[in-house]
Amino acid sequence: LVLGGPPGVEFIVSPGALSSRARVFIASSSTVKVYSTVERLQTTVPSTAVLVSGHHFGPVCELLLQPPGVAPDHIVFTASNVAQIQPIGEAIFDNTVIRAIVRFFAPRLLAKHVRAHMRSNAASSITLTGALTSDMALDNYAASRIARTLSIDLAPIRVNVIKIG
After folding, report:
1. Helix intervals (H) in 45-105
2. How far apart are CA 120 and CA 15, in angstroms?
3. Cα distances (angstroms) measured from residue 51 to each of 10, 14, 65
4. Alpha carbon distance 11, 141 (integer Å)
5. Does pLDDT of 156 surpass 90?
6. Which end of the chain is more exposed for a tag (fewer CB within 10 A), N or C?
C-alpha cells in the first residue's frame, strides 16, 4: 500500500514490488494523481498491470477502519503537504496545524488502524518519508521520532524512515 506523496515517489517503490509479483495499491487524496500513477505503472511494467490498482484515500481509510480483511505486508507513507514555513514572527497556528496533520498525526492514526490489518511479523513494514529538502530538518526529526515510537508500539512490524532527495 503506497499512500500519497510527491510525484515520482511511487515509482521508487512500486516497480520493485510489482516485479516480485506483489499487489500494489496506490492511494492519495487526489483522484487524478492516483489514476495517472496507476496508468504510468501499468505502462512501465505491463506484465504486471493487473497487480496495480488505485484508490482515493477516503475509501482506503474506511477499509482500514473495517474488520480485518485486507492484510498488506508493507505500507509506504509518502504523504506530505506544502505549508510554507514562516519566520517565527509571522507564524500562525493554522499553518502549524496543517503541517502537523500530515507529518505527525496521520502516520500515528494510520499505524493505529493498520495494526489490525497487517501481518504482525518482522517481514511486515511501515516506511515513512522525511522531508524532501534539507531546510525541513524539523520534519525529518519528527519522522524519525514517530518511526522510533511506532517501531516500539508495533513490534515485531518494522518501522523505517527514509529521506528522499
Report:
1. 57-65, 93-100
2. 25
3. 14, 10, 23
4. 25
5. yes
6. C
Per-residue pLDDT, averaged over 51-61, amounts to 70
Check: CB of residue 130 under 8 Å from CB of residue 102: no
User: Is 98 a residue whose pLDDT tops 60?
Assistant: yes
**What's the rounded Cα separation, in Å, for the pair 159 and 126?**
5
Question: In this model, does residue 134 exceed pLDDT 50?
Answer: no
Averaged pLDDT for residues 108-128: 85
pLDDT of 45 strictly over 90: no
Q: What residues contact residue 123 under an 8 Å CB cut-off, 6+ apart?
A: 73
Q: Which of 23, 21, 10, 16 is nearest to 52 (CA)?
A: 23
